[in-house]
């Protein structure tokens, strides 16, 4: 599809994008790297920015509109520009913002999560424009800048704006599906048609404060420990889901203890012990159902269960339809670009992404990028030494170009 010279340019532009430290953080962050990345993008993919309408949300989120026929339902592709912090720099074997290309890989924070989407989509649209392609359906490219901290200023603002203007898309393509390595050595491309919810609860156990030399049968810490063991050993019943995701490995609602606190002195029995459990409700299971499941389970232990009501709380997504035209052309495009012998299946993404914000402005949300995850699986995304193979990045560009040219036809 691309000449060797053009391929070199495609890789170079992506490596340049990885040099912008577009880190988002809950306690505030600079928008300057985002502005610089946009300036670079406007030069690197100038035909995209001269042919598509640009709107900015929340100071740095980008919405690009590729106008089609007004009578047709639009379609959206989404990617986020922000990345998570790098952690300990000395743990990395390369500069996370150096844009290094070596041994067949393009290295840097955000290379998979999710600048391959940002740059890959711009590259694909640029390619289509250069080939004279004109979409019949309007194509939106939505690039949020705060996905890693909840997406309120970016994806949510864009979705709210669509609602106000009465714009409804047939589907959104976002992150959340990858090419996984299986234990038997095979690989499978998984298109996620649903996403789990998110809710944390604080469990507090109560007892009488006292002297540790004469402990009662029941202590606050002991009761809380029993509750944690119970939660770990009692899976929540599986939800009723469509056949396509019945065998998904992440079907179960998970409940995991993450923060523990109790006691202030070694010889004092505390009056309270607390644990925060983070839960990921499966599609079809509500946050309220998870709370009542936990409450019933620990009722006999005199423990209170409170929802930590913050911006991260979200219900599980709907399960998207697999018989729509958008899905079928997406599946066809995936099957054409993945390596020979790679399987295909639908699945559930276990974490939360910006796509939950777009559920209200699209009938269906699909999550996929043709990128191989290493043995760390999804764990690799926010870890050290994030990198993508050159072959996978070119696959992304190829996939987006094929998908857009078909879906907007
Ligand atoms: Zn991401």
Name the CATH class of the largest domain: Alpha Beta
- Unreliable spans: none
CATH superfamily placement of the largest domain: Zn peptidases
Largest sheet: 6 strands, mixed
CATH topology of the largest domain: Aminopeptidase
Tell me what you see in this structure.
By secondary structure, the protein is of the alpha+beta class. The protein folds into 2 domains: 4-194 and 317-407, Aminopeptidase (3-Layer(aba) Sandwich); 197-307, Alpha-Beta Plaits (2-Layer Sandwich). The chain has 10 helices and 18 strands. The strands form 5 sheets. It has a 6-stranded mixed beta sheet with strand order 1-2-6-3-7-17. It has a 4-stranded antiparallel beta sheet with strand order 12-14-10-15, covered by helices on one side. α1 (4-17) runs antiparallel to α4 (115-130), α4 (115-130) crosses α10 (390-407) and α8 runs antiparallel to α10. The chain starts with a helix and ends with a helix. The structure holds zinc ion.
Provide a quick synopsis of the model.
With 409 residues, the chain is α+β, with helices and mostly antiparallel strands. The protein has helices spanning 4-17, 32-44, 46-51, 115-130, 152-165, 220-233, 287-298, 325-337, 355-358, 390-407; strands spanning 53-57, 61-66, 75-80, 100-102, 105-107, 139-144, 169-174, 179-181, 187-195, 199-206, 210-211, 254-262, 268-269, 272-280, 303-307, 343-349, 362-367, 387-389. It has 2 domains: 4-194 and 317-407, Aminopeptidase; 197-307, Alpha-Beta Plaits, CATH 3.30.70.360.
